[in-house]
## 1
Amino acid sequence: MRQQQDTNEFFNILCEYIDNCCPETAQVLKSSLGGVIVNETKSLEADYPYLGLKEEPFFALALDIKDKKSL
């Protein structure tokens, strides 16, 4: 069965497959290509201070480029 994917989808599926079947290879990929993005949630209320951090590992980031439809 054929499935159409863009390069980002294909790359993420490939990395997930490698992570599941070859943990040693996945570690090499994570250390050389991957990174960690941190999502921060911060309260604006002075009476209720809150700071929440959530780390998410990634292999690729999708970026929007202002005023450009293509590269």
## 2
Amino acid sequence: MHGLIRAGERVGLAVSGGADSVAMLRAVAELAPELGVIPFVLHLNHRLRGAEADGDAEFVAELAARLGIEAAIESEDVAALAAGQHLSLEAAGRRARYGFFLRAARDLRLNAVATAHTRDDQAETVLLRLLRGAGTSGLAAIHRSCPLAELVPESAGSQADAVRLIRPLLGIGRREVEEYLASLGQSFRQDASNSAERFLRNRLRAELLPTLEREYNPRLREALCETAEIAAAENELLDELAASAVGAEFDSEAGIEVELIRRQPLALQRRILRRLCHEVGLALDFVHLEELRAFALAGRAGKLELPRGYMAVIAREKLKPARLFILPSLSWKNTISGPPAVSP
């Protein structure tokens, strides 16, 4: 399990009923006494596939009961969530799942929640992000472990900060998963939406990846996963360097000195600006990030409009260095306190 699970821990297993998650459940159930962990089964019915989704929930509940593992099973209207929050079904599904994991972690006092992403999922994610455009952090793709609170922003500062999201199958391929289940005689559920052509990932899985492997590189999945491993390590290093550059006392509300940004190499300039934006809930694409970087390096007092109603402000006070702030545009216009007034 790559050292992801430690003796004495309570671990939630996210089980959809599909092959990957059922294999994870069976493996952890078998290894739990040796590992010294207490497993729990977690299942969220997205209510998108009617009776088929209800059947998935029943299958998971029965399998958990047969294995003697406590299960937490909930349902949520993901279609209504998507419509109400103007999200795609995929984005709404992720939000619902991570919210459910967080509730389960609190209720069951979990140390970690495990999802069944495999090596194939990793390869697909890297290729998908290459197609859409991604930097080092994007190419790092699916991490073996991260704080669950990072995926549920509204939970920041809560007791969930210590709960980890882990992916113990990330080094295992889908074919190995199916061979393992066959050796056990273990059935699993098939989700028809996994072959629906309206989803880009499904078309990539069924058409693009096999074509690229057949005509260009038979080792493409391995190469993509190696890219993710390299990018993850380099991304971690850049994060550490950026944190060191801004200092332990960094506070996004206090802004950041323009000269500090100017002194850094290009890669760290971008990383520091991304961090400043992330602290206030803003994610920028490459074009907008470069506009922000040019604005910051110019160092002139003024304002720059950013996406989603945010604004970059360079403010100056006498005898003090220029500072860059990232703020929601409305709050900048209405606030009395905050960054110093912009000097001509």
